[in-house]
Amino acid sequence: MIDTLKNPAHRAWLVLIVATGITWYLGEVGAAGTWSIVAMLLIAFVKGRLVILDFMELREAPLLWRMLLEGWLILVSSLILLAYWISLK
Amino acid sequence: MAGMTTSSSTQAASQAITQAATHRLPGDLAIWFFILAELLAFAVFFAAYAFARASHVEEFNLYQQTLDRNLGALNTLLLITGSWFVVLAVQAAHRDNRPAIARHLLLGWLCGAGFLVVKVFEYAAKFGAGISMSTNTFYMFYISLTFFHFMHVILGMVILTVLWVQARKGVYGSHDAHGLESGAAYWHMVDLLWIILFPLVYVMR
Amino acid sequence: MQYKSQAVAKPYFIAAIGLFVGQILFGLILGLQYVLGDFLFPAIPFNVARMVHTNLLIVWLLFGFMGGAYYMIPEESETELFSPKLALALFWIFLVAGALTIVGYLAVPYATLAELTGNNLLETMGREFLEQPLPTKLGIVVVALAFLFNITMTVLKGKKTSISIVLLLGLWGLAVFFLFSFYNPVNVVLDKFFWWWTVHLWVEGVWELILGSFLAFVLIKTTGVDREVIEKWLYVIVTLTLITGIIGTGHHYFWIGTPEYWQWWGSIFSALEPIPFFAMTVFAFNMVNRRRREHPNKAAVLWALGTGVMAFLGAGVWGFLHTLAPVNYYTHGTQITAAHGHMAFYGAYAMVNLMMISYAMPILRGRAANGNKSQVLEMWSFWLMTVAMVFITLFLTAAGILQVWLQRVSDTPLPFMVAQEKIQLFYWMREWAGVAFLIGLILYIASFFAGGDEKEAA
Predict the structure, then answer these.
(1) CA distances for C193 relative to B89, C139, C301, angstroms
(2) In the predicted structure, residue C384 carries a pLDDT above the cut 50
(3) B59, B89, C223, C454: most buried by Cβ count inside 10 Å?
(4) Does B81 touch chain A (CB under 8 A)?
(5) B and C touching (3 or more beta-carbon pairs closer than 8 Å)
(6) C293 contacts in B (CB within 8 Å)?
(7) Is pTM beyond 0.90 here?
(8) For chain A, what are the domain ranges?
């Protein structure tokens, strides 16, 4: 079990599955408003980052490309956050 | 043509772009440019959704409830798992475990196929209820975004098919995983996009 | 010149430049008619001058594309052209048909021309850019098919490179999409659909493939960068072009009786249309920076870099300027569109043809590159035409912004003609920029006669 988790791909997969479960659960209990939006965006951000670093294997890649992809994730999350923040006002 | 070296042009290309880097970019530089353009397209689409929602909050909140969250979550699991299998295929290539490459690619492909089947059921229910792109702004975005992504899943599966055929021929291994890594990167992008799309369209309110 | 049959490109290039001169002269007449409404009336009314200006543009670009293809394909395929005789015959047919059409536009009223040429048999006339009478349209199809046959057979018997495949894709697309011009439904929404499927899918779709392929060819020849690297870029550019260009057609579907979602699809995908043009610019500069040799033809390299930058500005930036649905709501059909049209056509298609001519013509005339004097003159013409076009675009943009403001945004909107009166100053300045452009074009032609090879120039 411990050996299995040494593979970053296995670790990432496990976290991704659990995180998806959490988002789904938040939906089921009807979570809404500021904190649930922030929580879900945060979860999506962590998940996206895991895909970029461990699935796309950019953790060890040239910094430029890692930054481009992670930058995309930050950009998209902030735009969504901004739009939702506007909608809450 | 005279005076040309035969060195690997791709390596030269990646090095020229990222001179400071000592690390390797998996796959081909061109596929990463392509991925970047695709990501940008979706970024615009996601932002358009979020900002359109800001001026139709009640409509979006109301009709979001009609979406099948369970199927959306199931599809997330399918894509994540499909992505995971493809990572394992790449790892198998680096270990020169040839049979494992093709096997994992096939499993990844099956996850993609599962995604498409689930999505078709979801669409059938929605279209059966008479919903179309002209019903309202929320459904316009729901159909546009998921359908655009749907097309990308299909393209990703076409790529996986090519990789699988090549893997069966024994093209990939520790000596050369270039094409495999390129295709894998595209497949992960399809996963990455859905990871944003699912909470955004199905859950966040 | 590696293959004898490449020589058929020469008459095509010469005709292209000749028609280009005609286009510019009619452009100047038109520009003057904006400020002096009755200039040359009734001999050449505004609508006729406009039709001649745009039709000459399309015809000379087509001549350039065909000439470029005839030059490039034998070299890429490493074999002689399938039939040089056919290529020459087509040249004369196309030239005579084109000339007769223009004479028809100028000699008789358009309605009479329509009557004389059997428009009542199949109504295809009267749509912008596709005004050609039925016989001309049929002629274009015949010439295009015979041309494609010739080119395709050459590729089939020779080596198949990515560059020639992309060119074939572009040329076949050009011919196939032209077929939409034969269908002119009564329903005005459908009419617009079919019209755009020719016009838009040409300039924002398949023509870009021709552009990319020519650019890649000249870059390989002048920089000596590995074909592999150049082809990879070409693939990325082609894919991006097709995705954004095809769905971007939606930006023509705003408020013409189409479903509302087109406002979103059209806006989003056309917002992405600058990407392939940007990639092309980066591509051109990147390849030139990594050049493995100094090609003697500096002028051709300048055109290659120029077309990347100007296509990005004209098609990409100026296109984006008015492509979003909420913006287009106000700017539709104003001088903003004219500004975009001018710079995009010049930057993307006029310049890529001039690049091809600049690269191929000296070789066709038996030297690797023109002499120093000739090249200096050509570079002057490059800068003069390009800067003049930038000014034409800026003046038209200013005119357009003012027009939108006075005629559409203002609380007390002015009627069209009153608004036009108020922006005359910009039309005058545009006309003078047009004169500068003509001088640039004259210098360009003069460069062909200024000195031969290096020895002669010395």
Answers:
(1) 46, 24, 38
(2) yes
(3) B89
(4) yes
(5) yes
(6) 3
(7) no
(8) 4-87
